[in-house]
Amino acid sequence: MKIRTLKKGDVKQIAILRYKLYLTWDAMDPIDKMDKKYFKSQRHYNFLAKWARDKNYLILVAEDDGKIVAFFKSYIMERAPYLQKVGYIAESYVDPKYRKKGIGAKMLDETRNWFKKNKLKWIVLSTHVLDKKANKFWKNRGFEEFNIYYKKRM
Amino acid sequence: MKIRKLKKGDSLKELVDLSHIMIKDYEVHHKEFFTLKKRFNKKKLEPHFHKSLESKDMQTFVAEEKGKIIGFITVEVRERLSLYEVSRSGFISSLIVSPEHRRKGIAEKLLKEAIKWLKKKKIKYFDLDTAVKNTGALEFYKKHNIHPIKYKLLGEVK
To answer: Which CATH superfamily groups domain B2-143?
Structure first.
């Protein structure tokens, strides 16, 4: 198992993992439905390639025998000009077959180091209210809920 | 008490002061994370309100009593990420009523105006967020059948 940053050649593999992650989110959100075709589109691949080059983004992947089995997507989030910047973990996903092996924890450590290098003090991320596994993972690592996000259909 | 759109000539100072109360509430709940930068100056909040006077996709409604602004709501239309079926959604970026005028249904009236505005724009849903410890707000949204979808979590880099 090797943890490294995203390369251009990984784009199609990551696109599939991202699709799987969004499928789980889609199932937990009664309002926002995703466009499933997007994940196999050139537009999606272009975004991934762009993030791989962007210094404000960190896309980490875990590679096992040439196969990518997990990824973390983070970035440096600018906030209102009167507030400090924070590190934002936008997406994190480990292939179900590779869970319970500490891969997520290692990737979090790497991500944390990157935030540290960028002199950030806080990490922010969001989880679905119904996502018990994710909430447990983050809470076990000292993360606390501070905000609740609501959606309302009209 | 009257609910109306923010207009040119309204005292931005009153709005900025109310915003400051809202930010202070956040500071109480999350001391360090929301601590304002040392050089924070209330004037920095003003451009936000200029934008809501000028932009078609952002509107502020104010609650006015005896010529004074005692609460406001800011609502926006946002473009969504391309991967969602719905490409535009509503977002309520601020909702605040001055502490001495709470418990009179003012927030409810402001929210209704914001929803009416979004409906006119053919927006199908909206979102908003609030501090976990802001129990008043949590009760308010529950009462209005607005349900939580996500949590935001905070951790230290260390």
So the answer is: Gcn5-related N-acetyltransferase (GNAT) (3.40.630.30)
